[in-house]
Amino acid sequence: MITRKSKREIEQMQKAGDLLVAIHKEIAKMIKPGISTLEIDTFVDKYLEEHGATPEQKGYNGYPYATCASINDEICHGFPREDKLQDGDIVTIDMVVNLNGGLADSAWTYAVGNVDEKGKRLMEVTKTSLYKGMEQARAGNRIGDIGHAIQTYAEGEGFSVVRDFTGHGIGPTIHEDPHIPHFGLPNKGLRLKEGMVITIEPMINEGSWESKMDSNNWTARTIDKGRSAQYEHTLVITKGEPIIITDQDK
Predict the structure, then answer these.
(1) Does residue 178 have a cis bond before it (omega within 30 degrees)?
(2) Is residue 132 in a domain?
(3) Residue 87 annotated as binding site
(4) Which of 38, 153, 208, 216 has a CA-to-CA distance to 193 between 20 and 30 Å?
(5) Which residues form the Peptidase M24 domain (predicted)?
(6) Residue 168 labeled ligand binder
(7) Does 241 belong to an annotated binding site?
(8) 201 is in an annotated binding site
């Protein structure tokens, strides 16, 4: 069932979003060669506890961590680990914050030290594709308009769009209807309505869009070892530009 959020619900989700943004800004300072994603996960767990919040994905279908940490060819749902990040890696940190019942979800890809030009371009195109999709996220448009904008831009830049994982509605639980594919045809799919809260989270690959699953049954990675980047915002649909709950540039 698709729900449209009340003003009170949106305000509570915004508070969760503000906290999530603060964490991402702290992570940005921490990312460097030699740190482990398990250290980052421990930091996030403690930060949330100190601010009266909880990591919503911890325990979700048995997932054991506060964050997902996906490195290089890992598309999503990478497990935090003790291995140290290396100079030239890219790493996506994804998390869902629950603050007094309000949820916010955001992923961000970080450069570790000196990333090569192709890696930098992958990150830039992925981030831009998120904003291309968000331009279409307004009441009266259809879900296909979002995916089409992302796909045409990313593929036009020589990259591929992951098909196996999508954005989604959010609140009161972590994954709600509708699904938000990052590919598709314009003027197709469910019509967006004011008050809906969704995530847009394109995962863009250097090579093939296809994925394979690790033995942990969580982590997806590219089939050809090409790198993958992801940027994600939680946003509220309005008649005009969406309200970005997880905006880092306010």
Answers:
(1) yes
(2) yes
(3) no
(4) 153
(5) 11-239
(6) yes
(7) no
(8) yes
